[in-house]
Amino acid sequence: MAEIHVMISSCERNVGIATAIRRKPVLANFTSKLQQTMADEDEVKLFGMWASPYSRRVELALKLKGIPFQYVEEDLSSKSCLLLKYNPVHQKIPVLVHNGKPIAESLVIMEYIDETWTNNPILPQDPYDRAMARFWAKFIDEKLLMTARKVSFASGKEKEQVIDEITEQLKLLESELQGKEYFSGPSIGYLDIVASVLVFWFGNVQEALGVDMFTQEKFPIIFGWIGKVFEIDAVKECRIPKEKHLEYIRTRLEALKSASK
Amino acid sequence: MAEIHVMISSCERNVGIATAIRRKPVLANFTSKLQQTMADEDEVKLFGMWASPYSRRVELALKLKGIPFQYVEEDLSSKSCLLLKYNPVHQKIPVLVHNGKPIAESLVIMEYIDETWTNNPILPQDPYDRAMARFWAKFIDEKLLMTARKVSFASGKEKEQVIDEITEQLKLLESELQGKEYFSGPSIGYLDIVASVLVFWFGNVQEALGVDMFTQEKFPIIFGWIGKVFEIDAVKECRIPKEKHLEYIRTRLEALKSASK
Question: Does residue A110 share a domain with residue A45?
C-alpha cells in the first residue's frame, strides 16, 4: 500500500482559516482487502503524526476494518488551523473527522469506529470482555505510557525506580496475555490495537534512551505476541520507520534537555 | 431510602483471606422505583467509599437504572482483602462485582452497567453522541480533576495559576452545557453522572481549601444544571454529607501537609 502523508503545517493566523482549509488533504491510495460497509459518500479523515503511537493505533483500527480514509500529517511544532479547529480543547492528534464531524482522543475514536462501521468488530461482544478490554486499555494509557514518559526525565536512582515500575507494569500485561493468541482472544482486536504501542514505539524509545528493560528474555509472551502481530499486513503498514524514529526521539530528548537547563 | 454502609476494613493478612470473606456485606435496603430487568439470581456488589466522587457516580448509575446492589464501604487506610483480591492492579475503589466477576475503574464500570442492564440507557444511542459523552468524561477525569488535585499542594503564584487553569476548564464545560437541559440532552445520562463530581464533591473541596473559583456568578449554566440535578431522587440519595466531608478533607489536607514537612 502506498500512503501519501500530506503535511498541513502552521495555523497561519495572519493568512486566515480560509486559506488553510483550501489546502485539501490528498486521498490516501488505500485499497482494502477486507469487506467494508462504508457508504460511498462517507468522508473519513485522520489527522495524525507519523511517530505518534496514538495516531498509529487509529490508523490500524481503520485499516483492520477496511475503512478508506484520508491521512493528514500534522507538523506538531506548527499545528494547522484545521487541527486547532477540530480539537480546540486539547489541540492534539489524533483527530478523526467523519463527514465533517470531529472526534478526538484515540480510545474514544476507536469506540466510535467500532460503533459506526460494525463489520470486523474490534471490541468483544460480551459486556464483561468489553469491560476487561477497556480496563487494560486505560492501564496502558494511564499507567504504562505515563511511567514510560518519566524515563526521559529521570536519572540515577530515580531512573532505576521508574524502570522497576515499568517492568512491574509490563509483567501485568505479560500475565494478562498468558494462554491467549492475542490480547483480544483468538484474533487481533481493540486491546491489541491499543497495545500496539509496544510493537511500534516502545522498543525504539528504549533503544534511543539506552535502557534495557523490555527484552524477549524478560517478556517472552509479549515478544511472542509482537511476532504474531507483525505477520498481519495492516500492522506492517502502520510500522514506524525505525531509523527515522530513533533520530526523531534523540532530537526531542536533546531539545528537552536544553529546555530544562 | 435507608442505606447500610458496611465497613470491611483491613486485609488482615495474618488472619487470612477466608476470615475476611466470611464478613459478608449486608444487602442495602434499596427498592427501585424504576423498571429493572435484572434476573433474581444476579448478585451485584459495589465496593466504594462515601467521600469518593468516583464511587458515588457508580452508585448513581446503579440507582438511576434501578439495579439492586450491596454497598460495601471500604476503609482506604486499611484496605480489605476483598478489595485487593478484586482490584489487584490498582487496589482502589470503586469496584463492581457482578456474580463474582469484578470490574474496576468508574468509567469502565458505567459502560458495563449500561451494556449489561439495557433498561434506562445512560449513554446516548447515536455513535457520535456517545463519542462526545466519552470525550467529555475523559476531560473531566483526566484534566479537570487532575488540575483540581494540584490546588491542595500549590501556594502563592502557583496556586493562582492552577485556579486559572481550572476556571478555563470549567468554562469549557459551561459552554458544552449551554442550551441543554442536561449534559446528556433532555434527561440525565452518562456525562451528567460523570459530571456529578461537580455536584457532590467540587463545592465542598473548594470550601475546605478556602478558594472561591466555582461560583454561581462565574458559572450560571453549571449551577442551573446542579439545581436541576438535585431535584432527582437518586441524586439526593448519593449526596455526600457536607459537614462530614469538610472535616474529612481538612483532616486529609493536614495529614498531607505533615507528610510533606
Answer: yes
Whether residue A93 contacts residue A74, with contact meaning beta carbons closer than 8 Å, is answered with yes
In this structure, what C-alpha cell is assigned to residue B178?
A: 449551554
- Residue A102: phi, psi to the nearest 5? -85, 145
**Structural domain count, chain A:** 2
Enumerate the β-bridge partners of residue A44.
Answer: A98
HEC secondary structure over B1-38: CCCCCEEECCCCCCCCHHHHHHCCCCCCCCCCCCCCCC
Q: What is the pLDDT of residues B77-134, one digit of tens each?
A: 999 999 999 999 999 999 999 999 999 999 999 999 999 999 999 999 999 999 999 9
For residue range B223-259, list pLDDT tens digits in order.
999 999 999 999 999 999 999 999 999 999 888 878 7
In terms of domains, do A104 and A164 share one?
no
Cβ contact B127–A112 (<8 Å): yes
Q: Measured between beta carbons, which residues in chain A are less than 8 angstroms from residue B98?
A: 128
In this prediction the ipTM stands at 0.87
Q: What is the dihedral of CA B225, B228, B232, B237, to 10 degrees?
A: 60
Between the alpha carbon of residue B175 and those of residues A87, A98, A113, B153, B178, the distances in Å are 15, 23, 26, 28, 5
Residue B128 and residue A89: Cβ atoms within 8 Å? no
CATH number at residue B137: 1.20.1050.10
Task: Give the bridge partners for A7, in sequence order.
Answer: A73
Give the C-alpha separation, B181 to B173, whole Å. 14
Tally Cβ neighbours within 10 Å of residue A108.
20
A-chain residue closest to B171, CA distance = A89
